[in-house]
Design brief:
CATH superfamily: Class I glutamine amidotransferase (GATase) domain
Helix content: 25-40%
Order of helices and strands: EHEHEHHEHEEEHEEEEEH
Number of helices: 7
Strand order of the largest sheet: 2-1-3-4-12-11-10
Largest sheet: 7 strands, mixed
Low-confidence stretches: none
Number of domains: 1
Strand content: 25-35%
Mean pLDDT: 92
CATH class: Alpha Beta
Structural class: alpha/beta
Number of strands: 12
């Protein structure tokens, strides 16, 4: 197998938290013919066969870093080309228009919707840190039926691990592929074409989460 025959999966590095744990999980799950590259080089992103945008941190700081390095343009281009793309946690939020966390800061706006602050009250703590049960309002490619059936056989109801103070309110409900409840209905995952994103951390969500990452890396 030559270098030209290798598939390239790029994890975008923009000095946000959680990149290393995503990289570790991906390296365990990748096929032999796939090269994993953690980079902030727009040219490498544009050559990728798969792209992951992870992240934990503040919306405004993250957008500033993406814009400074030209990563915003590269992200929009690979999404326009229908390269399979996965946003995780902050990586989901950045795909949308704006966030209450950083008023006046524009997101990537490749999807329509806004990021709201989770409500306090009724014993809920903000940020939400821990497990929450997912529900699936529609079938899709990321949460396909076989994957969900296999996960249910192993773990029962699908739970995922969250660490967040802000949540997605998507403008178009048809792109929402998973939800959970935390004082409000959280749009926990979205899907449009080859663009997938989740508010929870699949790399920290046990066998169910790892099966999602494996599905993205190997089959989408």
């Amino acid at each position: 197998m030559t270098v030209d025959q290798q598939k390239n999966l790029v994890i975008i590095d923009y000095d946000a938290g959680n990149i290393k744990s995503v990289e570790t999980a991906v390296r365990l799950l990748k096929p032999e013919d796939m090269r994993i590259l953690v980079t902030d080089d727009p040219e490498e992103i544009l050559r990728a066969d798969r792209v992951i945008l992870p992240g934990v941190g503040a919306f405004g700081d993250a957008m500033s870093k993406l814009n400074t390095h030209g990563l915003d343009t590269a992200i929009r281009q690979v999404i326009d080309r229908q390269v399979p793309f996965l946003g995780i946690c902050l990586g989901l939020q950045l795909l949308f228009e704006s966030s209450e966390e950083s008023p006046g800061v524009d997101g990537l706006s490749v999807l329509q919707g806004r990021i709201r602050r989770l409500p306090d009250g009724e014993g809920r703590k903000v940020p939400q840190i821990g497990w929450n049960r997912l529900e699936f309002p529609r079938s899709g490619r990321f949460f396909d039926d076989n994957l969900l059936q296999n996960a249910a056989a192993v773990t029962g109801e699908p739970y995922a691990y969250f660490v967040h103070s802000y949540y997605l309110e998507a403008s178009d409900s048809s792109i929402v592929s998973a939800t959970c409840e935390y004082g409000v209905t959280v749009h926990a995952a979205v899907e449009k074409g080859n663009l997938f994103a989740c508010q929870f951390h699949p790399e920290k969500s046990g066998p169910f989460g790892l099966s999602l990452l494996h599905h993205f890396i190997n089959h989408l």
